[in-house]
Write a structure and sequence with these properties.
Layout: E1 6-9, H1 13-28, H2 36-59, H3 63-90, H4 98-105, H5 107-110, H6 115-128, E2 132-133, H7 160-168, H8 171-186, E3 188-189, E4 192-193, H9 199-252, E5 260-261, E6 268-271, H10 272-279, E7 282-283, H11 288-293, H12 300-305, H13 314-327, E8 334-335, H14 338-352
Parallel strand pairs: 1-6, 2-5, 7-8
Antiparallel strand pairs: 3-4
Helix pairs in contact: 1-13, 2-3, 3-4, 3-9, 7-9, 8-9, 9-14
Length: 366
Amino acid sequence: MKDDRIKFDRNTPFQRALRDEVDAYFKANNLDPKGGAALARKAAFIIGWFLVSYAFSISGVLGTAGLFIGAVITGLAHAAIGFDIMHDGNHGAFSTSKAVNRWMGRTLDMVGGSSYLWRHKHNVMHHTYPNVVGTDDDIDVGGLARLAPEQPHYAAHRLQHLYMWGLYGLISVKWNFYDDFAQVAKGQIFTSKVPRPKGEEMVWFVIGKIIHFGWALVLPIALFGWGLGIAFYLVEAVVLGVTLAVVFQLAHCVEEADFTELPEGTVTELDFAKHQLATTVDFARDNKLVTWFLGGLNFQAIHHLFPKISHVHYPALSPIVERVCAEHGVAYRLNGGFMEALGSHYRWLKRMSIPPVAVPVVKPAL
């Protein structure tokens, strides 16, 4: 999963200053960088929210309307499990206990994904190489859209700023029915070989799929019939897909972010922290509700710099990082509010929908 075209320097004066200032913050305030009791309470609330909304959905109390209202609320709770619980768990940021982190990470298996594959795809491929075309799987949608200047342009992309919002809703459906199974079968994620899960990891892969399809599809079909059962699954999955996709796009696929393409045969050395900050954009830092729901992923730059620190600390770390960036002449990229970031993503999709201008080749005079 290593990209041999890139070598990172992880110990520059800038990075040492970032680490020293963040370490000093935790020491001065006698704080644990992990989530601690505050995150445990938040996780319990979110899991309760998910279970209650799901139970309301399938109870039939309000008939068909209640089923679909509950599906929307369940989809949002489902997203919150991803943002707030499994994300910190799979990064080792939820707790000082490896066992607790692993169990929190496995909440992803219960709600449709694979924590094993996610750790390879997200923690390694995306976090190491954000916005590197050909290596970061998260910016490659298989030709359905052009998200980076270096990607090929197709005629259909002229309308991508309109149709992608609908396709975002299908991301979780594709993930559930195809992506994880294909990646295990191939032993590959995007361009990188990945060891197939074995032993306990394979057991959890199978158990997770059984649990997810059981609550998301089988039980609703058993209670309401094929039509309403499948409709419940689709509404819940579309709400989840749009929520997950938009949040990721607002951090990386916006006008303020940089993209990189490295031709074969070239080797480039990058400052690791500067690359993270150039390709990642924070948004809505002052919106406490957004921060709570998104698990601090609106502070995406902080997360990329310090992925093993829990999201509960990101609001306090953001001004520290911004100050260190200013002292070292490094840009800290930011969109003010959620709608501002959403507009930036829309404009980026539209900009990428325009065919690139070909540079004419000028032949030397004979």
